[in-house]
Write a structure and sequence with these properties.
It is a single chain. Helix content is 30%, strand content 25%. It is an alpha+beta fold. It has one domain. It has a four-stranded antiparallel sheet. β1 and β2 form a beta hairpin.
Length: 179
């Protein structure tokens, strides 16, 4: 059974192997499932999109960002299209993880897809979407909860040393009624 650290390293390397223009061992372009891979890059308008992975504990957040036109946003099935793109990216990550490490990884979706469309003008709009996954099959299925006792002890010793409320010996100001 792999440790969570090994799984995160493998997934990070799988994501790193997907940069724009990446080639596999046979010299073919790597296809992740992004819009920028469609069409001819020399004569078509260049589409700006990409993805990112973040980790916290035993969870992975897959984020997607792309420029879109408002007519695409208002078309039927826009959220489903974005969800399918994230699913394609996830399947790429799993395949690439298997190539990198020689073993498979299980990712369970937690919650729903989060899609947000923003614009800066009538021409420029972009979509950001994200999904959270729980990494299964690791030694540490859950992240241990740490207590705040050490922090509390530090504050208590600070206050005991006179951090707040006590005047220093060299303070020559007249005492007020509150002290």
């Amino acid at each position: 059974m792999a440790s969570i650290y090994d799984i995160i390293q493998g997934l990070s390397q799988a994501a790193a192997n997907s940069y724009d223009g990446a080639r596999d061992s046979e010299g073919e372009l790597v296809e992740v499932g992004l819009q920028r891979e469609q069409g001819n890059p020399l004569i078509d308008k260049r589409v700006m999109d990409g993805f990112n992975v973040r980790f916290f504990g035993n969870k992975m957040v897959l984020s997607y960002h792309a420029e879109v036109q408002l007519k695409e946003v208002y078309a039927k099935g826009f959220e489903g299209e974005i969800d399918q793109r994230l699913t394609d990216i996830l399947s790429f990550l799993k395949k690439e993880y298997r190539k990198v490490t020689g073993s498979s990884v299980k990712l369970k979706q937690e919650g729903d897809i989060d899609v947000r469309v923003e614009n800066s003008s009538r021409v420029r709009s972009w979509v950001t979407a994200g999904k959270t996954f729980i990494i299964k099959g690791s030694e540490a299925e859950t992240v241990p909860q740490y207590s705040n006792d050490k922090l509390q002890d530090g504050w208590q010793s600070f206050l005991d040393k006179g951090g707040l409320g006590k005047r220093p010996k060299n303070d020559k100001r007249p005492k007020t009624s509150g002290e």
